[in-house]
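Input record (one chain):
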Amino acid sequence: MARRKSLSRRSTPRKKKIVERTSAARKAATAKSSALTIVDDLLIGPGVSFVETPNKGGDLSPRYLVFHYTAGKSAASSVSWLTNPEAKASAHLVLARDGTITQLARFNVRTWHAGISHWDGLSGLNSHSIGIEMDNAGPLKKVGEKYQAWFGTLYGVAQVIHAKHRLDDESRWWHVYTEAQIQRALELARLLVRHYGLKDVVGHEDIAPDRKRDPGPAFPMEHIRAMVLGREEEERERYEVTASALNIRSGSGVEFPPVADPLTKGTIVALLEKRDRWSKVELLENSDVEGWVRNQFLKKV
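The corresponding structure, as predicted from the sequence alone:
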């Protein structure tokens, strides 16, 4: 995967502020995730259960964390399938849309989630990684005013995004992840990277780009990787406001109140965090102002 180039190590007041803010966010995430622990390679904490899969084998000394989407109807149906010997597939964790977690194998046991895969000079990532399956339908097809998964379930417009996967030529409709899933994924990634000294956090699309597209463009992989691996010194992407007046809000939704006067057309902002429809940004001309804006009214500069 291509990585953004880092800035020089020269310290600036603005860079210092970004580092301090990211460090504070990291500490907050650590505090929140402290309820989750790992004991004897088992995840322990609220909302965690264990259902052992027979689809496993061999010792594992993990070096990487791999995110997937299930492309299934629900977390329960995915757990049922991944514990079925006929599936010949499994993962260590299944993360439901409400944030609950089912562990299918201990973290020191190899599961079958990666298939034919390559990363960092290694082949066969089943032997080198922990796999997390996120309950998500994946790509969708528009049917009338709804959006249909391959298994037939229809979703409303609030549950989808239209985006181009970086490995594809054309845009498609994708099932969104919930806020609970994204926050839990961040907690899990931080805990697993810290506990096992993992080297990187990647998607199935990274290790098998010729055949896989999960977890897809609806998942904030770069944000999670940066938060977990501490890449706060990378340059923030800059965007220009394209709307004549753009509300900047305290949260990622129209129900949240504005934090400042509307941004005018041409205002330049720095990206702090990107989601499917909303982005958290900071005003370059006034770094004390930050909040959430709609992605459709931003243009990268």
